Amino acid sequence: MSEKVCVIIGASHAGVNFAFSLRKEGFEGKIIMYDKDPVLPYHRPPLSKAYLTADTSIEDNCLKSKDSYLDENITLNLGVEVIDIHKESQKIILNNGEEQHYNYLILATGARPIIPPISGLKEAKHVYPLRTAGDVSNIKKWISTADSKRVVVIGGGYIGLETAASLKKMGTHVVVLEREERILARVTAPVMSEFFQKLHTDKDVDILTSKNVESINTDEEGVNTVQCSDGSSYAADMIIVGVGVNVNVSLAKKLNLEIENGIKVNEYTQTSLQNVYAIGDNTYHYNPHYKNWIRLESVQNAVDQAKVTAAHIVGNEKIYDTIPWFWSDQYDVKLQMVGLSQGYEELIVRKEETESIKFSVWYFKGDELLAVDAINNAKAYVIGTKFIKENKVIDKDKLKDVTTIFKPANLMMKEEV
Amino acid sequence: MAKITFVTKDNQEITVEGTSGSVMELAVKNNVKGIDGDCGGVCSCATCHVQVDAAHTDKTGVASEIEQDMLELDDDANEYSRLCCQLQVTEAMDGVVLNVVK
Ligand SMILES: Cc1cc2nc3c(=O)[nH]c(=O)nc-3n(C[C@H](O)[C@H](O)[C@H](O)COP(=O)(O)OP(=O)(O)OC[C@H]3O[C@@H](n4cnc5c(N)ncnc54)[C@H](O)[C@@H]3O)c2cc1C
Ligand code: FES
């Protein structure tokens, strides 16, 4: 039998972790990866955080070193786009005209920033999304050369807020415009929104909510005026667009795969075609713990799905069944989140007795702990993780009482005698 | 310059040299198995867990509070456990032996 070929489209958190996991699982066939991004695959989360403010090179931020790909016999083709797939002959077509046959195809195509249909946005000067190393280079170049450094960030989600914090640190004047009534509205509870709002305000970053950006006018000097529907306007020498992502599904469509809010995959990350898998930001998948179909944008999801796919290809049964986790770093505040808070009915905020900022928000539905958001509090994060994973019931009174020493055993509901 | 030895789960000994950055980055650059560094080195993922050889703890110092908290409920953690993204490669680390946990 001839050697099996595994082709991976997209070499980022999902694709790269998959390739190395597949070797670890003992796959001996060919592994060939493609990414249109020309840069050696890198960590995305630091792009809006430490990497944006630091002087380090993108190589210091790589997912794997160049040599590691050679060591593991993984062929990495960068700067090439896959533009078509032929289902019957099982081959992909590249933008340089070349073709490659596959036995297994992995769609790790992720997502791309939404560029909203705001009038004048296309013509505006120095408008950048934040998704790639190239975007960061553009932003850094602008900062090092611009005389006037007024930045408007459109969108108060994690990426927008992290970028605002980093740009502030770099000496720019930053205004964040959020359409909803509060920042992080889709992803967290009002207490957390308030906390971050105050954090930024204290650092002199203006966070303005209920601001619907309507149009942008750019004058001859290249200064943009961002106009909101409430009549207010903001001058911007640079605009960061952080209003979310669209999933990259055009190749999946060519294969007629089932698509909902992402490419639909089963517990083994297989799409509706048996030898075609999808992993990472682009998947719509079932979470057994929460009994819900979801799409996630996180490193955890990309890495864990990658491992499931690798195991399945070599015939090791393993299903995707993990509790989602995520983090965000802004200024010197570290947020760690575990679980999915959707559908919560009750919140418990536990504030530790320390001088420094340290608290956690616990989301419950009845007795079930759904999720924990921990601010500068890794202990709350790991304890929350344990209780969620093990479906253990927490004694809420003990949790609220900060004099309870923070240990799982002390928080456990005592069995009734 | 510091020479750092990683001992992987399958008892491979890998000695590498580094001058700066974190020990996790050094391990990733040298393809040390079991050090994934999924969070990129911000103490959020615990996929860079090592145990410092008992004779070498003076070279690494003690874990910070967040490191200790991240490892507290990890079944594989012991008193020598560190998240090596929090260890900087410095002269003081020369000769250290780190056992990779995963
Ligand atoms: C600024 C920023 C900060 C973030 N912070 C965090 C964080 O703190 N914590 C966290 O958990 N997550 C964070 N995330 C999310 C995390 O980075 C993503 O979840 C992760 O990158 C998803 O990996 P992926 O491989 O699925 O997709 P992507 O990273 O989107 O990669 C997909 C790749 O596919 C390539 N591609 C797509 N189509 C083609 C094609 N046709 N041909 C060739 N190549 C193609 C793209 O070029 C891209 O490189 C952050 C993301 C960003 C942008
Ligand atoms: S690399 Fe994530 S905790 Fe060290």
From TrEMBL, chain A:
Q: Which SUPFAM superfamilies match?
A: FAD/NAD(P)-binding domain (SSF51905), FAD/NAD-linked reductases, dimerisation (C-terminal) domain (SSF55424)
Xref: InterPro entries: FAD-oxidoreductase/Apoptosis, FAD/NAD-bd_sf, FAD/NAD-binding_dom, FAD/NAD-linked_Rdtase_dimer_sf, Reductase_C
- Residue span, FAD/NAD(P)-binding domain: 6-306
Q: Which GO terms describe its molecular function?
A: oxidoreductase activity, acting on NAD(P)H
Q: Where is the Reductase C-terminal domain?
A: 325-404
Listed under GO cellular component are: cytoplasm
- In Pfam terms, one family for this protein is Reductase_C
The protein's name is Pyridine nucleotide-disulfide oxidoreductase
Q: Which organism is it from?
A: Flammeovirga pacifica
Upper classification of the organism: Bacteria, Pseudomonadati, Bacteroidota, Cytophagia, Cytophagales
UniProtKB/TrEMBL annotation, chain B:
Source organism, top-level taxon: Bacteria
All copies of the 2Fe-2S ferredoxin-type domain together span 2-102
Q: Which UniProt keywords apply?
A: 2Fe-2S, Iron, Iron-sulfur, Metal-binding
Per UniProt, what is one GO molecular function of this protein? electron transfer activity
SUPFAM superfamilies xref list: 2Fe-2S ferredoxin-like (SSF54292)
Query: Is Iron included in the keywords of this UniProt record?
Result: yes
Q: Which cofactor does it need?
A: [2Fe-2S] cluster
* Biological processes, Gene Ontology terms: P450-containing electron transport chain
What is the protein name for this chain?
2Fe-2S ferredoxin
User: Origin organism of this chain?
Assistant: Flammeovirga pacifica
